[in-house]
Design a protein that fits this description.
single chain, about 90 residues, little secondary structure, 1 helix, about 0% strand, elongated
Length: about 90
């Protein structure tokens, strides 16, 4: 490691803006509330995040989901994809 180079870079470091939170609820937005997904089936739904226009940088996404399953561990997978496919 080059400590001098690290200090030189740190002098011009630009901090990221303050953290901004945006919450979106799937209740009432077409989510599959109470829907049964059978073995081998796929299900998808979209959430509209256009009201989160104050977010300039996306560092992480937290997804809270309530799921009841009789499947074995590893039988269920969840994929998150943004409309511009950067997640």
């Amino acid at each position: 490691m080059d400590a001098y180079a690290m200090i030189t870079l740190a002098k011009d470091w630009k901090p990221v803006p303050a953290m901004v939170n945006c919450s979106i609820s799937s209740t009432g937005s077409g989510a599959h509330v109470g829907r049964t997904i059978n073995d081998g089936d796929e299900s998808s739904f979209q959430l509209d995040a256009s009201n989160c226009s104050s977010i300039e940088f996306l560092e992480h996404v937290t997804l809270s989901i309530n799921l009841t399953s009789e499947a074995k561990r590893g039988d269920f997978s969840l994929n998150i994809r943004s409309n511009i496919e950067n997640i």
